[in-house]
Specification:
Layout lengths: L6 E5 L4 H12 L3 E6 L2 H14 L4 E5 L5 H15 L5 E4 L14 H29 L2 E6 L12 H21 L4 E8 L5 H14 L3 H9 L10 H12 L10 E4 L7
Parallel strand pairs: 1-2, 1-4, 2-3, 4-5, 5-6, 6-7
Helix pairs in contact: 1-2, 1-8, 3-4, 4-5, 6-7
Length: 260
């Protein structure tokens, strides 16, 4: 069991990539905290975990853009498990599109607050205990949009570029303390977020849902969407002892769409 006796906290853990990572970690023996703004979703995932694996699972409602909510999440984790998490997966995020000239202050600030500041707040809260123990893993779920720009996603892309900067600075700061920090950069993943993207394309272009999905698939040389389980497999490696030499990296899971 690669993660036995470890505690993992996954934000955005109620569906999609977060759910898949939580299940993958639990299957390898980790106790899991799943957090999201929607309590019902993470409660469902926690029940799914405990029904399948002999581990503990805690569901918490948290808005990562609110520093007091993040602090409460870590306090509840400490109370329930007796210590802070060994593994932090910053997965909570949003993705909305608009032309730059139509990106209002609220849309811009929301992306930075959730995608970037939320990851910072959680990382800042998790690191002291990891440093004291001399072991820890920070895994940020970024995006290939954090490496390349694209039309109509300036706020999202900027927030994910920022997440890569946070990852690299964190990695170098704690490299000698038994802690790693890495980012995973998925392409289009078969999740509700992509489904919303298809609906947006259909609404704005008049193309059918099938046409919009076909266009998204063609962005990958493999002509397909990535699965949440494929992202989770990399997250498992990065959380394990076998992944210790991987630090400060931004690893694409995108079928070859972006080659750097």
């Amino acid at each position: 069991m690669k993660l036995q006796n470890r505690i993992a906290l996954i934000t955005g853990g109620g569906r999609g990539i977060g759910r898949a990572i939580a299940l993958a970690y639990a299957a390898e023996g980790a106790d899991v905290v799943v957090a999201a703004r929607t309590a019902a979703q993470v409660e469902s995932v926690a029940q799914e975990i405990t029904s399948q694996f002999p581990v503990k699972a805690l569901a918490l409602a948290c808005d990562v853009s609110d520093v007091s909510s993040v602090e409460e999440m870590f306090q509840q984790t400490q109370k329930s498990f007796g210590r802070s998490p060994d593994i932090l997966v910053n997965n909570a995020g949003i993705a909305e599109s608009a032309a730059i000239t139509k990106t209002d202050d609220a849309l811009w600030q929301k992306h930075l607050a959730i995608n970037l500041s939320g990851s910072f707040y959680c990382t800042r809260a998790a690191l002291p205990s990891m440093i004291d123990r001399g072991w820890g893993r920070i895994i940020n779920i970024a995006s290939i949009a954090g490496k390349t720009g694209a039309p109509y996603i300036a706020a999202y892309s900027a927030s994910k570029h920022g997440m890569l900067g946070l990852t690299r600075s964190t990695a170098l700061e704690v490299a000698a303390k038994g802690i790693t920090a890495n980012a995973i950069c998925p392409g289009y993943v078969d999740t509700e977020m992509t489904t919303c993207g298809v609906e947006n394309i259909t609404r704005k272009t008049g193309r059918s849902a099938d046409e919009a999905m076909a266009a998204i698939r063609k962005m990958s040389p493999q002509n397909r969407l990535v699965t949440s389980e494929e992202v989770a497999a990399l997250a498992l490696l990065l959380a394990s002892e076998e992944g210790f030499a991987i630090n400060g990296q931004a690893i694409n899971v995108d079928g070859g769409s972006v080659l750097f």
